[in-house]
Amino acid sequence: MNLLELRHVTKSFGNLRAVNDLSFEIEEGKITAIIGPNGAGKTTVFNLITAWHKATSGQIIFKGEDITRLRTYEILKKGIGRSFQIINIFKNLTVFENVRMGVLARAGKGMNFLRSVDNQSFSAIREKTTELIETVGLQQWANTTATVLSHGDQKALEIAIALSAEPMLLLLDEPTAGMSAEESQYTTNLIKEISGKTGVTILFTEHDLDMVFFMSDRIIVMAQGEVICDGNEECVRSDKKVREAYLGSEQ
Ligand SMILES: Nc1ncnc2c1ncn2[C@@H]1O[C@H](COP(=O)(O)OP(=O)(O)OP(=O)(O)O)[C@@H](O)[C@H]1O
Ligand SMILES: [Mg+2]
User: Fold this and answer.
1) Residue 3 has what pLDDT?
2) How far apart are the first and last CA of the chain?
3) What is the tens place of the pLDDT at every residue in 235-251?
């Protein structure tokens, strides 16, 4: 089943068409990569799906429902979570506190949880928080302040926070940006593991092609706001337009 569909989506910034009549579908349970050169429109696609930006035209369909005109928080509630190109966590809180914020938000308790949570839901929240921390392998850091974590562990924390909303679709914009080779490998393995453990559908962007080939069930290649290739590793490697736009024509 298709979880997400983009139908002829365009986003213009002034005269620039950052996304140009773009259509694709994302299948449930799969890991799909969107790759392409700088400025291809990848982040803009994520911003459109999560309503950070409003599409100039076209439709975005999630679980059969048109979400094009919904607001960001409504889209989050429908089951789309995301992490950013730049890490987005509360650095002065512990890992546990960070994840618990997400769990509380999901439970609709917001910041008033101390007043509004009874004992039973308090332990349910604790359990859920612990489970998410284990899912991303951060149990030994649960009581550590986020700021001292390695870059890879901070990304794992960010993913745990995103998962606390129990998304069906998780968008990861360059999850290994700025990481060492070792940290990138760790994060890539973790994402694959999370997909296997939770069954969450993943759509991600990444510049390192080895990572992309290792992780993805399917690869969508964008250039200048358009899809120029859609398939698997073999198809991407053999496509002339991809070699010209992305890999460099000499390869
Ligand atoms: N808020 C904005 N206002 C104006 N132009 C924008 C805005 N956001 C993106 N753009 C432009 O849209 C185009 C696509 O940008 P986008 O960030 O989506 O590319 P990208 O594929 O994510 O690139 P990168 O690989 O560098 O992250 C670029 O030309 C960019 O300058
Ligand atoms: Mg980007």
Assistant:
1) 97
2) 36
3) 888 888 888 876 665 44
Distance of CA 160 to the CA centre of its chain: 11
Residue 136 to residue 194: CA distance in whole angstroms:
7
CA of 205 relative to ligand 2 center, distance in Å: 8
How is the chain split among helix, strand and coil, in percent rounded to 5?
45, 25, 30
Residue of minimum CA distance from atom 5 in ligand 1: 13
Ligand 1 within 6 A of 184 CB?
Answer: no
Torsion of CA 164, 168, 174, 177, to 10 degrees: 20
How far is it, in rounded angstroms, from Cα 166 to Cα 191?
15
Domains in the chain, start-ordered, CATH in brackets? 2-247 (3.40.50.300)
**182: helix, coil or strand?**
helix
Structure tokens at 127: 């359990």
Mean pLDDT of the region 4-27? 97
Q: What is the pTM of this model?
A: 0.91
pLDDT computed for residue 247 by the predictor: 60
CA distance 124 to 68: 34
Arithmetic mean of pLDDT over the chain: 90
The dihedrals phi and psi of 211, each to the nearest 5 degrees, come to: -60, -45
